[in-house]
């Protein structure tokens, strides 16, 4: 439950079974069709050997926002939208204890393909947030896998 009293699991159906997002401590700030804003705080176990955010943690936050923006917050019984490719540019180091916010926005949707930009911001004490990373995701909408399909 967030500070706003909203259960993040109810805001977006893809979070119901997302154990990675739970472990990251992701909080949903805003979600609407083609957009999502989420945040997490950098904990010690999220740091690399240099004592800054592991790039995989920043990527995971951006990727979660991407998935939320790609898939309707109302859910779908027929299709899911997955990543077909992504690029990320790390611009600054993530500092322990700071809050990271990922802001995802659909740029283009044509047929089953889409392009999304995700900006990852880092809180800075007594200053404006700074851009930590820029992530561009390419999506593809596919039929929802059958519940009878074998699990890998």
UniProtKB/TrEMBL annotation:
Source organism superkingdom: Bacteria
Its keywords, alphabetically, are: Hydrolase
Which SUPFAM superfamilies does its entry note? Thioesterase/thiol ester dehydrase-isomerase
| Pfam families listed in its UniProt record | 4HBT
Task: List the InterPro entries hit by this protein, alphabetically.
Answer: Acyl-CoA_thioesterase_PaaI, HotDog_dom_sf, PaaD, PAAI_dom, Thioestr_dom
Q: Which residues form the Thioesterase domain?
A: 50-121
Q: Does the record carry Hydrolase as a key word?
A: yes
Keyword Membrane carried by entry:
no
**What is this protein called in UniProt?**
Hydroxyphenylacetyl-CoA thioesterase PaaI
Gene name as annotated: paaI
């Amino acid at each position: 439950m967030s500070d706003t009293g909203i259960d993040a699991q109810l805001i977006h159906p893809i979070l119901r079974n997302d154990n990675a997002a739970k472990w990251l401590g992701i909080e949903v700030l805003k979600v609407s069709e083609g957009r999502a804003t989420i945040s997490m705080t950098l904990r010690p176990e999220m740091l690399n050997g240099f004592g800054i955010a592991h790039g995989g943690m920043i990527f995971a936050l951006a990727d979660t926002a991407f998935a939320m923006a790609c898939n309707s917050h109302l859910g779908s019984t027929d299709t899911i939208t997955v990543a077909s490719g992504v690029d990320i540019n790390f611009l600054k180091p993530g500092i322990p204890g700071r809050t990271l916010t990922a802001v995802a926005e659909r740029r283009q949707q044509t047929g089953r393909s889409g392009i999304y930009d995700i900006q990852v911001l880092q809180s800075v004490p007594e200053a404006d947030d700074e851009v930590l990373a820029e992530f561009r995701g390419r999506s593809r909408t596919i039929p929802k896998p059958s519940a009878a399909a074998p699990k890998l």
